[in-house]
UniProtKB/TrEMBL annotation:
GO MF annotation list: metallodipeptidase activity
PROSITE patterns linked: RENAL_DIPEPTIDASE_2 (PS51365)
Protein name listed in UniProt: Dipeptidase
Coiled-coil intervals, chain numbering: none
GO biological process, one term: proteolysis
Superkingdom, natural source: Bacteria
Amino acid sequence: MQWIDMHCDTLSEIRKGNVQSLRHNSLCVDLDRLKRAGAQAQFFACFVNAADYISPAEGRGTEKKPGEIYGSEVWDRAYAEVIEMADSALREEEGDFHIIRGAEDLLPEKTGEFIGGILTVEEGGVLNGKTERLDELYKKGVRLLTLTWNYENCLGSPNSRERTVMDRGLKRFGMEVVERMNDLGIMIDVSHLSDGGFRDCIRHSRVPVVASHSNARSLCPHPRNLSDEMLRAIGEKGGTVGVNFYSAFLRETDGGENRADAEDIVRHVRWMMNQAGEDAVALGTDFDGFARADLPKGIQDVRDMEKVWETMRRAGITPRQIDKIASGNIRRVIREIWR
C-alpha cells in the first residue's frame, strides 16, 4: 500500500537529540522504515514551541496564558530554528530521498522511485508580522503552514477550552497571510486553530484548506478535534483532514491500558467520511509528536501502518476508499493548491 502522511514531528525531535539522522534513527519515522512500509511521501513538520526560545534572562520555558503573546525576539529565534530544521532536511537529500516542491513529483508513474519529503511549518507565529518570511519559507521548500500551535500569535488564537478564546477569529495579519499563502501555493493548515480562525479560513481562502492532524470532536470531545460542522466545511471546500493517531484525540482516555487501538482510528475515519465525504479523509499520524505510550495499542512506528489498512478492510472500507485515504485525496489537494 502506497501512502502519504500529512504530519510527523520527526525533524524537531532529531534537533532536540542532535545525534540522529532522518535516514536512520530510533524514533517512529525514518527514511529506511518509510521505504519498507510502502510510503511514497511524508510531510515533515518544522515544529517550534515558542516557550523554548525564551532566553534565560527572560525566564526560559515560561508558557503564556491565553491572550498573552511572546515577544518579537522569541519569535525571531524560533524562526531561525525553523530555517535550520528545513536546511537539515535538505542536507539529507540524496539517492532515494528528495524534498518535493511540485505536484509533478507525485505523479503515479513516479510511485516507488523515491521517498518524498514535504516540508511544513507548525507554528505560524514565526512569521512575526513579516509576510516576506512566507516567500523565504517557500523558497526553502515549505508547502504547508499550520497557522497556530498552542499559543496566541500574530495570526490568531489556538483551540482552547475557554469559549472566549475559541471564538476568536484571525487577526488582520492572519488574513494577509491567508491571501499570500493562496498566491504562493502554500497549504493552509487549520489543525490547532481556534474555531473562529477556522471559520475565517474557510470564508477567505480561495482554495481548499486542510487539517493536517485532527480527528472528530463528536467521537472524542477534545478542542483539538473538529466538529461535524467543521468537517463538512472542509469537505465542501475541497480540503482534507488527516486522521491523528494520538490516543487522547481518538477516545477519552487516561492512558495505560485504556489507550486507543486501531479500531478507534477507523471509527474516526468512518465518521469523518460520513460528515466530510470520502474525498476529504487522509492520513495525519502525528508520529513523534507525543510519547510512544500514547500511540494506539499495537502501533509503534511506521512499520505498523499495514495494521491500519487491514483494520479498515475488516471494517468494510472499500479498496477504492482506502486508496483515497492513503494518498489519493491529498494528491488531489496538492494538485489544486501548489503552484
